[in-house]
Amino acid sequence: MLQLYFFPMACSLASRIALTEADVEAQYHLAHIWTKTVVDDGSDFLGVSPKGAVPVLVLENGERLTESAAVLQYIADLKPEAGLAPRFGDPDRYRLQEWLSFIGAEIHKAFLFPTFWYKDDGSLAKPRARITQTLSVPATHLADREFLVGNRFTVADAHLIWALLLLRPAGVDIAQWPSLSAYLVRMQARPAVREAIATEMALRKTVATSPA
User: What pLDDT shows up at residue 208?
Assistant: First the structure.
């Protein structure tokens, strides 16, 4: 059985959404990303992944896969009939990779990561100034589309859902982009998405959410 190491409402939420959408069974292990411990047994999370970051997907053969873009595509390819990623050879496969890269680099690492991990000593001024321009890209793209890629839900949507959910606690109100607000409402109406978010929001209350 697959095993997913996650932290509630961290970027690993996208992997939980994908597993739930694909109806793929997995064991979930809560890994505290600040204390670097596995909450189940108190073991060293760095022993699972030297990166000390989630998600970590342990495959059936024991190999470990990290980084959201890779984990999400792997999950999608486990159940191709679920349509969570265009099949190999489909030009939209590269659009999927394009969006996964954009969300991971331009929203997650360029804005959300420093916002939640660094003290605001002035160093966050540039990321905050840039995020408006960054979010205008998916906002424009989704102005006349239901999903990021093609005409169905993919793992790229799972990744963007997580990013949009984290923007408000990061101090960004997505209401200024009506297409993003409407998109998030649509996505949260999906049973699998709603279930995954509810599960992690409940778990979030049980763990400390900051280094302090």
Answer: 60
